[in-house]
C-alpha cells in the first residue's frame, strides 16, 4: 500500500477489527462552534456514503474487499475528527474508559446531598398539595432536560461537547454562551464546594461531641478549626488525577447519601409526633410576604435538583463510536441514578413534613431530629448519621471541584503547550481548597442561601437545555416541538427571576434563613 501523506488525520488499517482510537486519544473539540451553512446542507453525508454497491460494481474482488474493510473500519470509528492532544492532558477527558456503572455513581453522588434535607422546610410553606405537585413537576422537568443534554453531547457529527460551557458556546455563540453559562456553573462547582466545607466541618464537630460526650476535653477545636480539618481531608482526596479515578469515591458518596437520607426519614416517622403539630402552611403577616415565602420555598425545591452542570463532563469520560455512541451507557446509568434520587428525595420531603409539619426548623431534618428526639434516639445512631454526612460531603466535594480543576489545567496547558506536572496539578488543587476555606470563613452563611441560589442557578437545569435543543437541533418553526421547548425555556427563566426575588426577600426579612446546623 502506498505511503499516505503526513497531513492525514488517521491511518486506515487493512483489517476492520481494531481498538477504538478514542479510548487511547480523546477526539472531542475544545471549543466547538456552530456548524456553517455548508455543513448544514451536507449533514446526510457520512465517510462511507461514497462506498455504495453502484460504486463497487465495476471493481474487481480484491479492491472491493479492501474498500469493504475500510467501510467497516469507518463505521466503527464513526467519524473523522481532528485530534486535540490537549484533551488528553485534562482531568475530565484524560481517561475515556467510563461506562454505565460509572455514570450511575457520578450522577448519584452529584444529585443527592445536603440540599435534600431542607425539602420539608419548603413543604412547611407550600402544604401537602402544592409541595408534592411542585416536587413532582421539578423532578420530571429536570429528568427531561437531563435527557436533552445527553443527546446533545454528540449532536454534531465528529464533535463531542465535553463541557457544559462548550455546549453553551455552540448554541448561543462564543461570547453569549460564556456569559450565560460561566456564572451558574462556577457557583454550582466552587460555591457548592465551599458550602460542603461549611457543612462537613460543622458535622464533624457535632459527631465529635456526640461520640466524646462528657469526656470531651476542656479545649475542643473551634468550628473554624473543624473547617480546616475537613478542607485538609478534601485536598488529600483531590489528588486523584481525573474524573474516572474518583468513581470509587462517587460510589461511596452515593451509598452514604442513600443511607443517611433513609435513616433520617425512618427515624423521624418512627418517633411520636409533636403534640402541637399542624399541616397548615405557615401564615405570613401580609399577602406580599406570603407570595415571597412561597417563591423562596419553590427555590428550595429547585435547588434540590442540581448536577446538570456535570452531565456532559461525566459523559465525556466514555468511549464513543458510530456503532456504540456514548449516550447509550450514559442514559442507562442516569436512569438508574435518578430512580434512587427519587427514592431518597420524595420520602425525605413527605416523611419529614408528616413527622414535624409546620414545626420544621429552618435548618432541615437533622435540626428537627436533634431538637425533638435527641433524647429518644440512641447516640450511636445519631453518630452514624453524622458520620455518613461527612463521608458524603467529602465525596461530593471531589466531583463538584473537578470542572474547576479542569479549567485551571486547561489554562496552563494552553499557555505552555505541555501537560501539568504532578507538582503543578497538586498546587492548583491545594490553592483551590484553601480559597474555598477562606471564602467559607469569611461568608459562613453561604450554606444558608438555598432558596436564593436555587433561583440563580435554575437556568442551568431547567431553561438552558431547552434553548440549546432548539438552537442546535433546529426543529421546524412553529411546530409543537419548537413551541414546547421555547415555552419550557422561558418558563425556566421566569421561575429563576421569581425564586431569586423570593430568596432575596427571605434573607432581608429573616423569614427563612436556612442554616444547616445550629451554631454551638
UniProtKB/TrEMBL annotation:
GO terms for molecular function: amino acid transmembrane transporter activity; symporter activity. The chain crosses the membrane at residues 117-144, 176-199, 246-267, 287-305, 336-356, 381-405, 426-446, 452-472, 484-508. Residues 1-45 are annotated as: Disordered. The keyword Lipid metabolism does not apply. GO terms for biological process: amino acid transmembrane transport; auxin-activated signaling pathway. Residues 97-507 form the Amino acid transporter transmembrane domain. Keywords: Amino-acid transport, Auxin signaling pathway, Membrane, Symport, Transmembrane, Transmembrane helix, Transport. It is a multi-pass membrane protein. InterPro entries: AA_transpt_TM. One of its GO terms (cellular component) is endomembrane system. It is found in: Endomembrane system. Belongs to the amino acid/polyamine transporter 2 family. Amino acid/auxin permease (AAAP) (TC 2.A.18.1) subfamily. Carrier protein involved in proton-driven auxin influx. Mediates the formation of auxin gradient from developing leaves (site of auxin biosynthesis) to tips by contributing to the loading of auxin in vascular tissues and facilitating acropetal (base to tip) auxin transport within inner tissues of the root apex, and basipetal (tip to base) auxin transport within outer tissues of the root apex. May be involved in lateral roots and nodules formation. This is Amino acid transporter transmembrane domain-containing protein. It comes from Cucumis sativus.
Amino acid at each position: 500500500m502506498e505511503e499516505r501523506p503526513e497531513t492525514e488525520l488517521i491511518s486506515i488499517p487493512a483489517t476492520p477489527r481494531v481498538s477504538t482510537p478514542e479510548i487511547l486519544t480523546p477526539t472531542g473539540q475544545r471549543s466547538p462552534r456552530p456548524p456553517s451553512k455548508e455543513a448544514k446542507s451536507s449533514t446526510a453525508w457520512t465517510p462511507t456514503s461514497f462506498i455504495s454497491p453502484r460504486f463497487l460494481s465495476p471493481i474487481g474482488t480484491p479492491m472491493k474487499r479492501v474498500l469493504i474493510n475500510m467501510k467497516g473500519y469507518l463505521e466503527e470509528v464513526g467519524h473523522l475528527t481532528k485530534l486535540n492532544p490537549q484533551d488528553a492532558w485534562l482531568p475530565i477527558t484524560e481517561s475515556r474508559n467510563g461506562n454505565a456503572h460509572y455514570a450511575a455513581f457520578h450522577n448519584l453522588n452529584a444529585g443527592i446531598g445536603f440540599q435534600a434535607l431542607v425539602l420539608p422546610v419548603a413543604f412547611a410553606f407550600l402544604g401537602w398539595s402544592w409541595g408534592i405537585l411542585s416536587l413532582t413537576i421539578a423532578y420530571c422537568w429536570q429528568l427531561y432536560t437531563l435527557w436533552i443534554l445527553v443527546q446533545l453531547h454528540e449532536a454534531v457529527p465528529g464533535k463531542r461537547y465535553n463541557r457544559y460551557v462548550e455546549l453553551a458556546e455552540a448554541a448561543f455563540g462564543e461570547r453569549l454562551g460564556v456569559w450565560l453559562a460561566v456564572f451558574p456553573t462556577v457557583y454550582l462547582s466552587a460555591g457548592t464546594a465551599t458550602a460542603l466545607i461549611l457543612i462537613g466541618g460543622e458535622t464533624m464537630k457535632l459527631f465529635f461531641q456526640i461520640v466524646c460526650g462528657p469526656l470531651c476535653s476542656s479545649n475542643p477545636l473551634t468550628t473554624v478549626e473543624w473547617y480546616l480539618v475537613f478542607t485538609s481531608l478534601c485536598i488529600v482526596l483531590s489528588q486523584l488525577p481525573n474524573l474516572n479515578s474518583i468513581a470509587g469515591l462517587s460510589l461511596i458518596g452515593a451509598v452514604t447519601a442513600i443511607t443517611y437520607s433513609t435513616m433520617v426519614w425512618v427515624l423521624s416517622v418512627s418517633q411520636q409526633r409533636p403534640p402541637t403539630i399542624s399541616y397548615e402552611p405557615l401564615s405570613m403577616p401580609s399577602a406580599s410576604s406570603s407570595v415571597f415565602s412561597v417563591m423562596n420555598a419553590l427555590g428550595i425545591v429547585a435547588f434540590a435538583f442540581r448536577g446538570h452542570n456535570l452531565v456532559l463532563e461525566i459523559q465525556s469520560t466514555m468511549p464513543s463510536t458510530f456503532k456504540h455512541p456514548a449516550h447509550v451507557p450514559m442514559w442507562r446509568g442516569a436512569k438508574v441514578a435518578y430512580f434512587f434520587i427519587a427514592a431518597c428525595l420524595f420520602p425525605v420531603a413527605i416523611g419529614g413534613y408528616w413527622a414535624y409539619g409546620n414545626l420544621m426548623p429552618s435548618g432541615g431534618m437533622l435540626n428537627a431530629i436533634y431538637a425533638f428526639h435527641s433524647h429518644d434516639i440512641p447516640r450511636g445512631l445519631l453518630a452514624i448519621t453524622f458520620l455518613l454526612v461527612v463521608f458524603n460531603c467529602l465525596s461530593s466535594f471531589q466531583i463538584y471541584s473537578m470542572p474547576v480543576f479542569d479549567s485551571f489545567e486547561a489554562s496552563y496547558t494552553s499557555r505552555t503547550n505541555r501537560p501539568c506536572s504532578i507538582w503543578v496539578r497538586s498546587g492548583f488543587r491545594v490553592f483551590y481548597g484553601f480559597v474555598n476555606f477562606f471564602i467559607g470563613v469569611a461568608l459562613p452563611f453561604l450554606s444558608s442561601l438555598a432558596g436564593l441560589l436555587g433561583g440563580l442557578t435554575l437556568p442551568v437545569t431547567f431553561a438552558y437545555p431547552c434553548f440549546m435543543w432548539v438552537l442546535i437541533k433546529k426543529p421546524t418553526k412553529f411546530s409543537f416541538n419548537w413551541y414546547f421547548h421555547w415555552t419550557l425555556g422561558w418558563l425556566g427563566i421566569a421561575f429563576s427571576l421569581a425564586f431569586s426575588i423570593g430568596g432575596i426577600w427571605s434573607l432581608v426579612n429573616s423569614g427563612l434563613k436556612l442554616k444547616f446546623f445550629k451554631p454551638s
